[in-house]
Structures are given as C-alpha cells and as structure tokens.
Amino acid sequence: MSARSSVPRSAAVAAVVAGALATGLLAGSSSASAAEVRIHDIQGTTRISPLAGQQVTDVQGIVTGVRTYGSRGFWFQDPQADDNAATSEGVFVFTGSAPTVAVGDAVKVSGLVGEFVPGGINSGNQSVTQISKPTVTVVSSGNALPAPVTISAKSVPAAYTPQGDAAAGGSINALPLTPRASALDYYESLEGSNVRIGTSRVVGATDPFNELWVTVKPREHDSRRGGTVYGSYTSQNTGRLQIQQLTPVSQQPFPKANVGDFLTGTTEGPLDFNQFGGYTLTARTLGTVTDEGLERESTRPQRRGELAVATYNVENLDPGDPQEKFDALAGAVVDNLASPDILALEEIQDNNGAKNDGTVAADQTLKKFTDAIVAAGGPVYEWRTVDPENNKDGGEPGGNIRQVFLFNPERVSFTDRAGGNATAATGVVQEGRHAALTLSPGRIDPANTAWENSRKPLAGEFTFRGRTVFVVANHFGSKGGDESLTSHHQPPVRSSEAKRLLQAQAVNSFVKDILKVQRNADVLVVGDINDFEFSATTKALTDGGALYPAIKSLPRSERYSYVFQGNAQVLDQILTSPSIDDFSYDSVHINAEFADQNSDHDPQVVRFRP
Questions:
Q1: Neighbouring C-alpha atoms within 13 Å toward the C-beta of 70
Q2: Bond prior to 208 in cis (omega within 30° of 0)
Q3: Parallel, antiparallel, or unpaired: how do β-strands 128-140 and 90-94 relate?
Q4: Stretch 290-295: mean pLDDT, rounded?
Q5: Residue 343 and residue 237: Cα distance in Å, rounded?
Q6: Does 133 fall in a domain?
Q7: Average pLDDT rounded to a whole number, residues 418-426
Q8: Which residues of 122-145 are buried (b: 16+ CB within 10 A; e: fewer)?
Q9: Predicted pLDDT at 164
Q10: Is there a contact between 44 and 15 (Cβ–Cβ < 8 Å)?
Q11: CATH classification at residue 85
C-alpha cells in the first residue's frame, strides 16, 4: 500500500465541476474560518469536497481509527451530525508519519483539504476527501466514539450506480449524492465515517494482502457454495464490502476465511476507499471467522466412450516452484479432474521461470509436472506445445508463458503435423471428406496484431475412437488497465476489451474455416478467455453459431471460475462446435473460493461422445 498524497484543486469553493479528476486537482490558496467549518462541510454533498484546495482551521471531532502502517494517518468524526444523509461526518487526516493521536481523542485539526485519488488520476478511481499537512491539537482523551452507522441488507439500495445523468466523460463526480437510491452513493455518503456490520457471509476468501470480502446481502445472486455471482454488467452485487484491519498483522494475525464462511459478531471501524477494492471497512474491531467447512469439488470420471477435455490455468508454473506446488497441482489433475484425456494448460513458464536470459523451452517444467501426475497416481501424459519467441507473449518478463496440451496416449492420440513454430500459422485443409490442420501443434494467425504481447492460440488435432477432435487452447489478454466497478466513470471504462474482441474474432474465423471444410467437425475452444460468458468477447467467439459457451449449460448459481473482489465470475471457458450438442460440463471449484490456493483459477472440464 503506497503512502497517500494530496493534490488539491483550485476552483470556486462551492463549485464542483465535471471532470475534476480527469483534469487534475490543483492547489488553491483560499481558507475557511474554523467557526464555519465542520466535517460535513468538508465532505459536502458530492464526491468532490466543496472546500478542496482550502485551508481549514480547528475542525473538531473524535478520533475513530488510527493507521500506523502504509498510508499513515487517522480518521476523526463529528459526534454532532447534521440532518443531511448525503454528507459524511468523518474524514481521513493524512499525516505521512505515525500519528500521535489515539482512538477516543477529541481533537482540533487544521490543514489543507484535498482529494486523493488511489492509483492516480488516470486510474478512473474515485477520490478520497482528506486533510493533509495537518496541525493537530488533542483536547481530551478517552471520549466515547460516535455511534457507528450499521450497513445492512436494508440500508444498502438495490441499484448500484447513481441514476442521474453523468457529466461529460461519464463521470459521476458532480452528481448530488442520493444515498437512498444507489449503493455507490450510499457508501460515498459514509466515506470516513464510523460504520459497522453484523454477522456477514464471506464471498471473497482471505488473500495474501490480509483482506477478505463479505456481503451484507446473503441472498443477492448467491451461489450454491456461498459466494455472490456476477452475472451481468448490471448485477454488480451491492452488498459486497472489503474488510481490512487497522491493527498490523505483526500484532494481530488476520483471520483466514473461505467463501461461505461467516465473519461473526460485530466488525466496526472507519469506511475507507482504496485502489484495490474500493469501499473498505478498516476494522478497529474485527469479528471472528466461523468455518462452514467448504470442500474442494471433484468431477466424476469420464465413461468408456466419453472424451474428457479440461483446461487449467496453473499460474506461472516453472521448475523453480516448490515441489509442493507441483504435487498439489498434480493431485488436482488426478483426484479433482479425474485424469482428463486431454488437458490444456495455461501459464506454463519456461525452464528457468522469470529469469530473463532468452530461455524459451519449457520441457523441464513439463517433465516435472507430468512426473508429479504419475506420482499422484495419474496417467503418463505426453505433451505438445510451441515455444514462443522470447518476451513476445506477455505475462511475467522472462517467464514466456504458453499454452500446452497434455494427453493420455492410452485413451487418445495426437496427430503430429510438423513445422509448427512461434511465427508459423497453422491452417485448415481438406483430407478426403474431413478437415485437417496444416500444422499440429500450430499457432493461429500469430502475425495478427491482436496477439501482440499476448499468448497466441495453440491448435491441435486429436483422435479418439477413430474420430478427429480439434482443440484450440487459449489465453486471451488480461483485464489489466480496466477501471473498477467503483470507478467515478459509470459505466467503468473497460479498455482491455478491445484487444480480446479482436482475439475472439480471429479464433472464431479459424473455427469457421474448419466448419467450412467439415460442417460436423468436433471443435473445442478452451482456456483462460479472461472474459465473462455475457461479454462482447464471448459473443464474438460464438458469432454465426460457430461455438457455444458450455458454461451456460450450468445453472446461473454455478457459472464461475474465479473470484474477484467478492464477485464469483467466469474467466475460464470451454466452447463447443455445433456437432457437440450432448455434453456434460463442470466448473470444478478447487481454488478460487479458498484462502489456500494452488492457482487463482478453477479448472473446467467437458465430457462428450464424439
């Protein structure tokens, strides 16, 4: 967590202009008298303080939280609230060094009002109103804290975004807050205030940064395993709230929780806004975790006449990883995925991982992984892949991640067609009455600018019980650079979609080339698509009826492979050609819902009779 800084804005005191964040918040020189200014005057009725850029003097309140690490400072709150629900009574004071105040101190604060944007003004994040460069006077200690506002299913509105007309550029900064009408306005009206939640269900497991997510709306798009499903761009799940703690973990360990567990009792503290989660309850008092015993799923084995094809993002696997990671991933392949006949892997790194020395081969990585599968009681998988050009496929620099096919030669055979390399494009030809690849394994259209600094799709030709099956393994461009759901732009800017749309169109075109030659060809497009089943990316993949997103065959409460900020969502997919019209699909939940993960993705498997 980086230290905060304040970049105040110059403008007329009462004016809140659309696009303030986009144009920057410039220093002002005016001041406001202490007799006139209280905390709710600083917070105002929009997202931008009407006093931004002004010096304030002797603003009074009670300290409700102190942060001595990361962004150092404290929150204080006026115990005498006004009658306007849109104006918060609390605000953050950025000290830069360890604060010298304590919770319960009555203080007077003088300083500069500003708007801090976590992640910078180009991130799209909302800003946090704060006082910087403070002079703090402690008037008394041991005072009762202002009563917390209870955040509950009843208090959070059903609508997520403000309903007014956003200003130019889609910013909601200038809109008056209507806390009874939208969740974003409700949370913003409590920015910096002392809040509490009661017993709440965990919907995002404890992460390495000592954070977890809960929902105060347990029935809101709930999954059958206790999560909260993100099923469309307009079902953002308003009850989600990130939880951190004010006490450093060196003094008080943060609890480990899985999805479906409960944060029991009262959790209370100031409501913050940060770069990586938006509105966050920074707990001064943290509830206890009640373990609900969530178990990892196991899919059923394929039957004799069924072909099982799976996809699994193994999260930057390289030989330098501990043997325990290889063993855990291998155990999942055998025990949880029932040793699929074909397994497409994403994020296999080269033989020395992130060491950036030009190495691109990954045979050592794959040998270590397939040996671990055998040790776990699985089959002796063979593999096929195409090594990328050095540092041309994105991901961790030097890691050279790529897709790989593993296949069980006792059940399925691979049709090798020589000549595939990082820059050669595989094509489709007719052999008799059937389609065939010119290169197998081969890459799809690697010179297409859609794949610049991104993984190129890997196509392979397999035979199962005399029937040819084409599999395309993918790892589309990431969502990096997209604005968050809590952005001041509504809807948020999702700039990464442009590249994935082009990638999807390229794969769709390739599948159509196969189907033009052989209309009843069995084709599977699998992998980390990095996009939702309802996205433009998926629609482009399915264009013209070439493919069907098989995850849509599941009930809505089971459609997810990843959990991000408390939203269970689809990133990993298997799409089927029209001839594969009778199949069994499973999103096998073994990682995304758990604090202890071997990858952050859940694998997917489809079974069918070619």
A1: 17
A2: no
A3: parallel
A4: 98
A5: 33
A6: yes
A7: 98
A8: ebbbbbbbbbbebebeeeeeeeeb
A9: 64
A10: no
A11: 2.40.50.140
pTM of the predicted model over 0.90: yes
Residue 12's pLDDT band (cuts 50, 70, 90)? very low
Mean pLDDT of the chain: 93
Instruction: Note the pLDDT of residue 33.
Output: 52
What is the DSSP code (8-state) at residue 470? E
In three-state secondary structure terms, 374 is: helix
Q: HSE of 140 in the Cβ direction (CA atoms, 13 Å)?
A: 6
Q: CA-CA distance, 431 to 30, in Å (whole number)?
A: 80
Asked which of 140, 171, 202 is the last residue of a domain, the reply is 140
Scan for tokens 């790989």, then name that residue.
Answer: 404
Provide, rounded to the nearest whole percent, the portion of the chain with pLDDT above 70: 93
431's enclosing H/E stretch is strand 428-431
Exposed/middle/buried for residue 295 (C-beta within 10 Å: 0-12, 13-18, 19+)? exposed
Quick check: 204 pLDDT over 90?
A: yes
Classify 234 as helix, strand or coil.
coil
Flag whether 600 is in a domain.
Answer: yes
91, 121, 140 - which closes a domain: 140
Helix (H), strand (E) at residue 364: helix 363-375
**Residue 527: both structure tokens together:** 């992998």
Q: What CATH number should be reported for the domain holding residue 491?
A: 3.60.10.10
DSSP 48: S
Dig out the tokens for 169 from the structure: 């550029």
DSSP label of 335: I
Let me know: does 49 contact 115? Beta carbons within 8 Å.
yes
Same domain assignment for residues 374 and 411: yes
**590 shares a domain with 458:** yes
Is it the case that residue 8 has pLDDT exceeding 80? no
- Same domain for 214 and 283, yes or no, is yes
Q: Which helix (H) or strand (E) holds 91?
A: strand 90-94
User: Percent of the chain, pLDDT > 90?
Assistant: 92
CB 64 within 8 A of CB 20: no
Assigned domain for 10 exists = no
pLDDT band of 245, cuts 50, 70, 90: very high
Q: Give the mean pLDDT of 418-444.
A: 97
Q: Looking at the structure, do residues 98 and 242 belong to the same domain, yes or no? A: no
Tokens (6 digits) for 584: 């069994």
Range of 342's domain? 307-608
In 3-state terms, what secondary structure has residue 452?
A: coil
